[in-house]
Specification:
α2 (8-39) packs across α12 and α4 (86-119) runs antiparallel to α9 (256-290). By secondary structure, the chain is mostly helical. The protein has one domain: Rhodopsin 7-helix transmembrane proteins (Rhopdopsin 7-helix transmembrane proteins, Up-down Bundle), CATH 1.20.1070. It is built from twelve helices and two strands; from the N terminus they run ααααααββαααααα. Helices cover 81% and strands 5% of the residues. A hairpin with a 5-residue loop joins β1 and β2. It has helices at 2-5, 8-39, 48-77, 86-119, 126-147, 150-154, 178-233, 238-253, 256-290, 295-315, 319-326, 328-350; strands at residues 155-161, 167-175. Strands 1-2 form a two-stranded antiparallel sheet. Keywords: G-protein coupled receptor, Membrane, Receptor, Transducer, Transmembrane, Transmembrane helix. Belongs to the G-protein coupled receptor 1 family. It comes from Lingula anatina.
Length: 354
């Protein structure tokens, strides 16, 4: 290990762990809190999609706090939460995995909701949609709990037999059996890549593809109808023509919010894959590289691991900025929220002097 620490790759890896977790924690917390507040505003909270994204902001916040705080304490204080007690070993792992997986599947559910609203919009009503959204979030929570319950059966107190033939505790957060160790080293990497990355990403891409196709068809149909109406109206009364054209323009612009929201979800989907895929590859290669005896290669691996992990946590940090860049309605509601806050602060300053 001493030889490994002398390589610049290992030094860079340590600096990455020291710099990025606190930065992500600050930026991600502020961004996710703002997202939650925007989604809970009067103009947004009646929408099923806003409920999903508010829940996503919560799971993202939990993920960065539970995940990054461990690394911060380890780097700055040399304190590993996982090894502090059996409760922290199981609790930290389960809560972190739950938050990470729930975030991924909430994105799938919100994309599915947009798919249904575009394909069969007239068969839905708002109350039913909100009820379905709440039920969907409960299903995601139950499914994710079951999906990550393996933590409680595979990790815990690990014992070994010493030279005297007695059991000795070797790790507070180890493997409870040889089968558990085999599961974590051989099966879990593929399990995680399927349920955390590839499954959600493929679902989002397929659903968004159908949404985009349907929106193009609807837009083309409405534009054709608008052109036909415009030609016909030239031979009729101008007042009637203007009224009809305004009505038709309104129907043409109706899907604009859906298009904007779909573009936003597409960006979130691609960023999700780009930022989470490296950590999955790292997980698949971890066992092989961990056996490497060459100190330089171990230093390189330490650098790769640090980059992969900070990219993964970046996915749960930047969603607010993606919404700002690609979501018109989100930007509008955010500006209104700050405007209302400014008015409230102005009134608070004036009232004491009255």
């Amino acid at each position: 290990m001493a030889f490994t620490e002398s390589y610049y790759e290992y030094i860079i890896a340590r600096e990455i762990w020291r710099v990025f977790p606190p930065l992500y924690l600050c930026i991600g917390t502020v961004g996710n809190v703002l997202t939650f507040l925007v989604m809970c505003r009067k103009g947004m909270r009646h929408l099923p999609s806003a409920l999903y994204l508010a829940a996503l902001a919560v799971t993202d916040t939990v993920a960065i706090w539970v995940g990054l705080m461990r690394h911060i304490l380890k780097e700055y204080n040399g304190y590993d939460l996982l090894r502090s007690s059996l409760f922290m070993c199981l609790g930290q792992r389960f809560v972190l995995y739950f938050a990470l997986d729930a975030s991924a599947w909430i994105l799938v559910v919100v994309t599915l909701e947009r798919f249904i609203s575009v394909v069969v919009p007239y068969r839905l009503n708002l109350k039913f949609s909100m009820k379905r959204a709440r039920i969907s979030l409960i299903i995601v929570a139950v499914f994710t709990t079951f999906q990550d319950s393996y933590v409680f059966f595979t990790r815990g107190l690990e014992y070994d037999i010493n030279s005297n033939g007695t059991e000795v505790l070797v790790d507070v957060c180890g493997f409870v059996s040889p089968n558990a160790k085999y599961f974590w080293e051989e099966i879990l990497p593929w399990y995680v890549s399927s349920f955390y990355v590839l499954g959600p990403f493929l679902s989002m891409i397929i659903l968004n593809s159908f949404i985009i196709r349907k929106l193009f068809i609807l837009r083309k149909t409405r534009l054709d109808a608008s052109v036909s109406l415009s030609r016909t109206s030239q031979q009729s009364n101008r007042d009637v023509s203007c009224s009809q054209q305004d009505s038709e323009r309104s129907s043409v612009s109706r899907p604009d919010n859906t298009v904007s929201f779909t573009i936003m979800l597409l960006w979130v989907s691609f960023i999700f894959l780009i930022l989470t895929f490296p950590s999955t590859v790292n997980l698949l290669m971890e066992k092989r590289i961990a056996k490497e005896s060459d100190p330089h290669r171990r230093a390189v691996f330490a650098l790769v691991v640090s980059i992969a992990h900070v990219m993964n946590y970046l996915n749960h940090t930047v969603t607010f900025f993606l919404y700002c860049l690609t979501g018109k309605r989100f930007r509008r509601e955010l500006c209104k929220m700050f405007s209302d806050l400014r008015v409230f602060c102005s009134r608070s300053r004036v009232e004491p002097h009255i």
